[in-house]
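Researcher: Structure prediction, please.
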Amino acid sequence: MKKFLFAVVALLMVVSQADAQSKASADALKALDKAKADTENPKKGVLPATWVKLSNAYQACYDAPSEGILAGSPQMQVKLLLKDQQVVSTAQEEKNGKLFTVDNYADKSLYYDENGVLVAWVVTKPALENALQLSFDAMKKAAELDTKGAQKKQITDGLNNIKNKFYEGAMSNYTLGNFAEASNGFEKTWEVAGHPVLGTVDSTMAYYTAVTATMAGDRDKAIKFLEYCLTINYELDGDVRASLADNYKSKGDTVKCKEVLTKAFEMYPTSQSVLVALINVYLESNDDPEKVLAILKVAQNNEPNNASLVYAEGSVYRKLNNFEEAIAAFRKSGEIDPKYVFAPFAEGCAYYDWAVDIQDKAQNELDDNKYMALVEQMEKTLEAAIVPFEKAFEVSEDADIKLACAEYLKNIYFRFREKNADYQASYDKYNKFVEENK
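Model: Predicted structure follows.
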């Protein structure tokens, strides 16, 4: 009986706390009803102050579930602020590659970082759906009616508040990896800022809208806002054009992608984001390799210690079947960054493919002396692949790359296993590795 009574008391406490928690929402909705009634009054409905009041009432509804909560607050401070509200559950959640402690309330979820600081929140039960947009709509109506400027300060302050709330919501969604919602929030921030009363061309918000749209996979929206950024000369030293080109490429429009990047390269020849994007699109489309090499030289001059740029040069030569130049570039890439495992692996592959190419020529050679000379050249080239493949095998921490190296080395050592005992031992070593790691 005591346990039953305790359970009933506990349930009553939860209901009481839920009621306390929803009081702010109930009060806000009650005030909203009154503000709405005023707009329907023939005399009051034509006054800008009436619509300012309605806008503020909508804002109060939007704020009600998270009233008083501030990003950057310690968890204990937030719990004291919400002492009349019960934490329904607490969990660990990974969002956007980060681990958060989440306090779930009846109408919201609060996200704390590893230091116990509030960094984001999501209202799960709003007092009113779409309240912030409705607040913006009401404030726009107030601005239309305020022909004499009597409410200019109130309207300006109200619009700034709406803008800031859209931005805070966008940042919360961005932090949690909700990129589509974040993009919508940044777009609304940009839209409010551009209202004639504020008159702000918020290039940063337009760019954020595009970036988060890209992250959400909404290429059309990203392109729309990146193109807009260019119309207001917001370039970020070529980064905007590089991002625009990437979105065109993702839509399959390689022609437009190259057009954007070519223009960007003319305007920002030292921009690495533009250069790398231009290099990649030409490499992927197998088009005009000589132009890619010229671009690469510019990029390498700008960033001489970038191993990947030299590696990219080797890749171009490899596509041209210029094995010697490819191998030289891959080797130089590895010298620049000894931990860049792709360099020795690509060097080994180039030697291996070169050996296969020579073997194909040998098979079509009818002259015995020339045939034997080609076989000897093929074997030397194949053996030359051993050193870079073994280096890649030792350096790499990637299981797939190690396995690929072992496959190549097993095949090479098998061919030469009778040459000496060391070659036989190496064959056994890599053959065993392949069998154990397939």
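Model: Residues 353 and 362 are 14 Å apart (CA to CA).
Researcher: Thanks, that helps.
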